[in-house]
Amino acid sequence: MELTLWTYEGPPHIGAMRIAASMKGVHYALHAPQGDTYADLLFTMIERRDGRPPVSYTTFQARDLGGDTAALAVETIRESVERFRPELLLVGESCTAELIQDQPGALGMGMDLPVPVVPLELPAYSKKENWGACETLYRVVRSVLGPVAPAPGTPRAPRPGTGRPVANLLGPTSLGFRCRDDVQEVARLLDSIGVAVGVVAPLGASPTDLLRIPEADVNVCLYPEIARSTCSWLERAFGQPTVKTVPIGVGATRDFLTEVADCVGVDAGDELTANASRLPWYARSVDSTYLTGKRVFVFGDGTHALAAARIVEEELGMSVVGLGTYSRELAREVRAAAQGRGLEALVSDDYLEVEARVMELQPELVLGTQMERHVAKRLGIPCAVISAPVHVQDFPARYSPQMGFEGANVIFDTWVHPLMMGLEEHLLGMFREDFEFHDRAAPSHLGAEAGAPADPAARGDAGASAATVEWTPEALSELQKVPFFVRGKARRNTERFATELSLATITIETLYEAKAHFGR
Predict the structure, then answer these.
(1) Is 311 helix (H, G, I), strand (E, B) or coil?
(2) Fewest CB within 10 angstroms: 173, 339, 349, 480, which?
(3) 68, 262, 287, 455: which is the annotated catalytic residue?
(4) Do 23 and 73 belong together in one domain?
(5) Residue range of the domain that includes 340
(6) Which sign, positive or negative, has the C-alpha torsion 72, 78, 81, 87?
(7) Looking at the domain assignment, is residue 17 inside a domain?
(8) Is the per-residue pLDDT at 220 higher than 60?
(9) Is the pTM here over 0.70, yes or no?
(10) What is the CATH number of the domain that holds 508?
(11) Same domain, 239 and 311
(12) Residue 26 pLDDT class (50, 70, 90 cuts)
């Protein structure tokens, strides 16, 4: 175990809390010391919930360790049932309580309570938050549906031919990245091809709702980190197929619709051919030529990192120079995606290792978590957040999905904005001594002469330097990437810089040295 200042994931009991906080009629009795109640703040302060998560703590203190802490657990479990009257009770322990080995899950099972009890044994020192959420959802679903599952080998009964096909959406949780809006967008997508949404779980579902899961034609695994184990069990127990494509990005959204249509036997042709997202057009527009070939570093949970890498290359025309994840459960998929791009994946939960890789690669854009946002800000690199862990600003009040065609629009705006702001700041710095833009320049309607320097070279006149300076073809090609409305000024400033240094030829290196010089 390593001590760290920041962490991408909490211990597995935080994942269990996310499942409990996502559902209705579920309560979590957590054997934990007083200090572990900090987890409430993740939901009330970061996610801005209007109430505490449904968790009761034993909150034992140091003086209790010499006594019967197991009795405290039993008392908390009983009080949780009497006070909150849940449909289902989760019982577990925090990483600190695991050390005293009171086995609260077993205690809860032996108490003959009037509600179903799901004991959670989540190894806190070898697993992390997403694994804890995945395991908790799997245990909850299996505890509810296990008694009604058909015998192994029983063929699935044919679905009724009347009515619309039905799909369950599995995986969205509290504290998930844009889960609330993703569910709305995916439901709209499915409705557009004639597919109804059955159960959304765990977000907003009750244990009674889970009983309707087998009625659907297909399960959509929206977030593999959370729902992959549950979908696999439902496939084995009830014969329900799983849609595994995550619809983040225009291409993936079309693949998702195709996979759903194939599973349930509907025609998605009209929706596939509709120009439902503006991302493809914006990515091809004049304003976006500045993005072409930008070097991008991608890091986050496995689902969002894989999706981001595809969007960067296939839809925005940028280049992925680094790809990684902190999700060890999806490390194989991320390594395969990196290898296909000729890269070595970074699989780590050490933010300092991620920072070192960013510094080594020197990308022009970082797509990551709030950790990478801090790193990129310190290094002066544009950054956009694509994955949890996130801070309060990434739980917006507005509709802001990541999935579907509207999610692609949101992604384009979110990712391109830091780059364009960086360009704007660079241009302001580069031309702040220009005769039109320096601090002493007269208002433009009065003419440039009022505040212009008398020296032609200081004005950046091409004739003062262009006759003695030549450009290499590579430097001219790079110059063409500068927006046309300032390209002439960029050329004059670079030639002025070269003349002052008595350089006969301008190379790409000279161009960037001039950029740095005028930006200081």
Answers:
(1) helix
(2) 480
(3) 287
(4) yes
(5) 279-427
(6) positive
(7) yes
(8) yes
(9) yes
(10) 1.10.8.550
(11) no
(12) very high
